[in-house]
Amino acid sequence: MRIIFHRLVHSDFVRKYIIFIILVPLGYLLQVCVMPYLSVDGVTPNLLYVHIAIVTVAYGRVQALWVGLIYGLLMEIMLPSVTYFNLALYPITSLFTSFIFADKSQRQRDMDRAMRRKTREFPALLRTVFCAMVNTFAYEVFHVAYIYLGGNNVTWQNVQRALLDVLLTGLLALCIGFCVRLIIFGRRKEVPMLKNQPIVFSKK
């Protein structure tokens, strides 16, 4: 029993999802409690979208949707601004960007290999950064559009703040994306490759 428990705890699958369970609430707490002190010119980077991007690339579409839904619900309850804005936007943007930036499953890789399809994947860190920036850009576009539809004038300052938010979120994803992914997956183990060598028969 102890051996089974030890193997279960130290397995990559269990460790991956233990980190997932820790990552989701930690992202919200850091966004609310820490990130306001790291604002630049009154603009706070969106750590929630950074975490969503990490989950999107490392875990897949379903987990990205759930994290987006959880963050949207928490932001809607704890920091309400526009009714249902956060609740709708976080899961929607998370779902759509996951189709572009998520890692391919092993089944998809096997199918590509069987069909001899040559597909090129960008490095995971770049996909994490771009995913966070695209999510934040979509969020800011909807926010600026709501300001305009509400009868208010959209000024250049609003556009500057939106672009600064996208840039800062991308830089934050670049800073922490590699470290968090390393914690999730650990160091990549080199797979031993068998080299074809000529067979030499010795004379006796």
Summarize the structure.
The chain is mainly alpha-helical and 204 residues long. The protein has 8 helices and no strands. The N and C termini lie far apart (53 Å).
Please render the helix and strand layout as text.
Layout: H1 2-10, H2 12-33, H3 47-58, H4 61-78, H5 85-101, H6 106-114, H7 124-149, H8 156-185
Mean pLDDT, as a whole number? 80
Number of helices: 8
Q: Which topology does CATH recognise? A: Arp2/3 complex 21 kDa subunit ARPC3
Distance between the termini: 53 Å
Order of helices and strands: HHHHHHHH
Radius of gyration: 22 Å
- Total number of β-strand segments? 0
CATH architecture: Orthogonal Bundle
Please explain how this structure is put together.
By secondary structure, the protein is mainly α. It has a single domain, classed as Arp2/3 complex 21 kDa subunit ARPC3 (Orthogonal Bundle), CATH 1.10.1760.20. Helix content is 70%, strand content 0%. It is built from eight helices and no strands. The chain has helices at 2-10, 12-33, 47-58, 61-78, 85-101, 106-114, 124-149, 156-185. The longest helix has 30 residues, at 156-185. It starts with a helix and ends in a 19-residue tail after the last helix.
